[in-house]
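User: Sequence in, structure out. Go.
Assistant: Echoing your sequence, followed by the structure tokens.
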Amino acid sequence: AELMISATWNNELAERYGKINGSIGVLDKVNGWYAPGIDIHRTPFSGRNYEYFSEDAFLTGVFGTEITKGAQSKGLSVVLKHMALNDQESNRDANGAVATFCKEQAIREIYLRPFEMCVKDGNALGIMQGMNRIGYTRCRSNYNLNIGVVREEWGFKGLIITDYNIMDTEESMACISGGCNLQLYGQGNP
């Protein structure tokens, strides 16, 4: 849906989409939504491009903010995803975790900007980390990202959750000390 909404260049449509999903959440007695996907299209081969708005940080931030406001106006908490530089689907599991290298200025101006806009302007209540690494550090246990930028610089007070993964005790402790509040588990996990 994000691709189609961003192609309209219609902010009101984005907010209405958020409100519709918020209303569905109320009807289904659901209070959290793992959306919108606001990472950036880094390459045409990224595994989640269908789930993200565009390669433009400002456009993504504006539409993500409108969807966030719309959904949360109905009581549905959004969980923005996947922060950040989520480049590919293959080799992104707990053991493989692709490493993405990028300069801090580009990370802040392009890849983190939509998340910052949704947090500051849309009062987003949740963020889902990517399974990837930025440099050598996993996003989910990246203290500088989760605490330094998101909590201290942006003033984010909400939930930070890992993406689906299988972790051992040592990795779980790294997530907690790195600023994640919750681990997302699925079938087959303890």
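User: And one key feature?
Assistant: The CA atoms of residues 53 and 164 lie 22 Å apart.
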